[in-house]
Amino acid sequence: xxxxxxxxxxxxxxxxxxxxxxxxxxxxxxxxxxxxxxxxxxxxxxxxxxxxxxxxxxxxxxxxxxxxx
Length: 69
Description:
The structure is a single chain. With about 70 residues, this protein is an alpha+beta fold. Helices cover about 40% and strands about 30% of the residues. The chain has two helices and four strands. The chain has helices at about 15-35, 60-69, and strands spanning about 5-10, 45-50, 55, 60. The protein has a two-stranded parallel ribbon with strand order 1-2. A two-stranded antiparallel sheet has the order 3-4.
């Protein structure tokens, strides 16, 4: 069973239900096109990560973005 895990930042209210459905559909279609399998068994998991919950160079992404403004 193909398993696709997408990690993305949760910003500006996060992705909409419709965006997530479109992403899952198109990722599944791409997998099927490339590997010729998995049409009915591909699992797509979308993890939205709050920018307070990960850091680059010791600073949270929330703070990095604040500094860039």
